[in-house]
Amino acid sequence: MTLDGAAFEHTMACFTPYTDRPELRGMLYHSDEEVYDFISKAHARSMQCTMHAVGERAIDQLLYTYLRVFSEQGRKDIRHRLEHFCLPTDEQIQMAKELDIILSMQPSFSYFWDGAGQEFANVVGRKRADRMDPFHKIIEKGITVLSGSDAPVAPIQPLTYLAHCVSGYNQVRNISVTEAIKMCTVNAAYANGEEKQKGSLEVGKTADMAVISKDPYEAAAAGEILEMEVLATIKDGRIIYRKEPV
After folding, report:
1. Rounded to two decimals, what is the model's pTM?
2. FRET label pair with 11: which of 30, 120, 171, 244, CA 20 to 30 Å apart?
3. 55-90 burial string, b = 16+ CB within 10 Å, else e?
């Protein structure tokens, strides 16, 4: 379910009005009871839930629904998620930690729209733009967060987004190389309940991996992390992509 919209369409559900459209503050697409009914039934059947929540009001709606359901039914190892979590408050980050909600986020958003052009700042103001995608705060809390592209909204470029998390334009959201790699690997596998099969290079796990052109730790230290390229992709132990030599 999609609980709200997006920033540039002015449908992301915010607590306060948009900077460029002060008569708007976005919208919620579903009532609290609709969201509760869905999650309550799914949780009772031990089905993992996730919903699109970008702005503070949508994030609030989903987190408090999880809290209500957990209070009524108890917690289970279902690994419920929240998609996007773009503009959370500090209180919402803490609540996600306490509820043990997995956050599926998209570094592609801030990579494309909070660079030199400052598109986010034009819509929500600089102060709120600096709160978008707060990877550092989230990981500091010990929350499991994974990285995606939200394709076709943004192209599938995992190495670019990994590099952006480490050495992006806006330092307020930068994290370590290790944490950025985990967002793309072990955390993603854990979120899908596949940590025993995927997510790390270990004997007995599925042989899914990418061969890249640079050591990401050395590349980050040299300021070259955005230059990494995929040289080969291996799926189930078979090479399915190999970059042709120049």
Report:
1. 0.93
2. 171
3. bbbbbbbbbbbbeebbeeeeeeeebbbbbbbbbbee
